[in-house]
Amino acid sequence: MIEHDIHPVRRHARILIASLVGTAVEFYDFYIYATASALVIGPLFFPKQSLAAQTLLAFMTFGLAFVARPVGAVAFGHFGDRVGRKSTLVASLLLMGASTLGIAFLPTYAMAGPIAPALLCLMRFGQGFGLGGEWGGASLLAVENAPKGWEGRFGAAPQLGAPLGFLVANGLFLILSLTLPHDAFAAWGWRIPFLASAVLVALGLWVRLKITETAAFRAAREAAPPPRVPVGLLLRRYPGAVVAGTAGVVACFAIFYLGTTFALSFATTHLGYAMQRFLALQLIANCALAVGIVTAGYWSDHANPARVLTIGAALTMAVGLVYGSGLASGALPVVLITLATALFVMGLVYGPLGAWLPALFPTSVRYTGISIAFNCGGIIGGALAPFAASWLALNGGVAFVGLFLTLAGSVTLAGVRLAPRQAEAA
Q1: How confident is the model over 347-405, as pLDDT tens digits?
Q2: Is it the case that residue 50 has pLDDT exceeding 70?
Q3: CATH classification number, 3-418, choose in 3.90.245.10, 1.20.1250.20, 1.10.10.10, 3.90.1150.10
Q4: In whole angstroms, what is the distance from residue 394 CA to residue 245 CA?
Q5: For a Cys staple, 385 with which of 35, 61, 85, 257, CB 3.0–4.6 Å?
Q6: How many CB atoms lie within 10 A of CB 1?
Q7: Which residues 6+ apart lie within 8 Å of 180 measured at CB?
């Protein structure tokens, strides 16, 4: 059989799996910490204060990794644009996995005092630094190998790692909470998901070590030597693309962490829901995220990624107007519909990013460009989301929580509208 007669997905199956697995590990790692921060990190790693103070401190350590991500984006982007996509992706996955595994062995505040939160912050920084180069490389691995007309669907493949990682992480926490007494879970059970991350990382490394470099990168290197300092060239020639790309990412992060981390924390501590019941609810709603991503991938190829992202941003603004009230409705069916709707809309603003962001930058600085934009957008939409939502809920009421989503949607909409035209390959 001639290779070109093979379906594109089958022909590039290993590439797509390699990009999806890495993103699944990313979201698994980040979500197990997000869940742990909502449930146990505050009491275990910080001195006894008010419950609200411990929750906010736990979410601050959650946000620390987002601050580290742009630093990692510059570092890994430098090597991704100069050395290649494959080797950089292997290095980022190793650092991310080692940092996540390290959290499983950390002492608590009762064991080591202030050393405990200091080590926790160090591991979180390592997680974020490694993740800074993960999404950008995984997306380029897929998109730069995509046949013409398949960029949207190939670009959505890494994004499917988000619901997959969320499913595994949330499911594991649900199983642990159902099988372990609360005291055992708080004492040592929460460490199991961090230990289990080693299995996913090993799988990701095994797949990635078997792939080859992308055709677009090889062609760029044959045409011209790589820039000595990719980030310098990027900021000199393409600052508008960086700003627009950053804004375009904000909505997806805001929806994800308000629909997962904040929702779990607020529902179990203020709304009276049992942890197991709400985790199960989120698992069901997570299916809507996968549907949204697949829809966005196909839609992007039949229309264009910018149009799908524009509609998704507008829907994010609309969801924000009812999100808080739906979450606090007191009726589980309404809560489920609220979460599922929000996560489906997230799929519409997350799915197109794999094809939309790379089009803003030439090949020579593409890894650096999309990594910086994605991770800076993560600081605004992700790191601030649980903290801002908690503050809004405590000071204005849960109905005000959705205003953060409305604002995030408007920022993404502005980013798409103001984005420069597609960069020419360089």
Answers
A1: 999 999 999 999 999 988 999 999 999 989 988 887 777 677 777 777 777 777 888 89
A2: no
A3: 1.20.1250.20
A4: 32
A5: 257
A6: 5
A7: 189
CA–CA gap between residue 115 and residue 27 (Å, rounded): 27
Tell me if 400 sits within 8 A of 321, measured CB to CB: no
Which H, E and C letters describe the chain, residue by residue?
CCHHHCCHHHHCHHHHHHHHHHHHHHHHHHHHHHHHHHHHHHHHHCCCCCHHHHHHHHHHHHHHHHHHHHHHHHHHHHHHHHCCHHHHHHHHHHHHHHHHHHHCCCCCHHHHCCHHHHHHHHHHHHHHHHHCCHHHHHHHHHHCCCCCCCHHHHHHHHHCHHHHHHHHHHHHHHHHHHHCCHHHHHHCHHHHHHHHHHHHHHHHHHHHCCCCCCHHHHHHHHHCCCCCCHHHHHHHHCHHHHHHHHHHHHHHHHHHHHHHHHHHHHHHHCCCCCHHHHHHHHHHHHHHHHHHHHHHHHHHHHCCHHHHHHHHHHHHHHHHHHHHHHHCCCCHHHHHHHHHHHHHHHHHHHCCHHHHCHHHCCHHHHHHHHHHHHHHHHHHHHHHHHHHHHHHHHHHCHHHCCHHHHHHHHHHHHHHHHCCCCCCCC
The packing angle between helices 384-396 and 239-257, to 10°, is 50
Which pLDDT belongs to residue 424?
44
| 73 touches 368 (CB < 8 A) | yes
Q: How far apart are CA 289 and CA 341, in angstroms?
A: 9
Instruction: Scan for tokens 């503050």, then name that residue.
Output: 391
Nearest to 417 by CA among 298, 245, 302, 293: 245
Assigned token pair, 272: 């009276």
Residue ranges of domains in the chain: 3-418
Nearest CA to 27 among 189, 256, 262? 256
User: Which residue is associated with the tokens 């946000």?
Assistant: 63
| 151 Cα distance to chain centroid | 20
Amino acid at position 273, single letter: Y
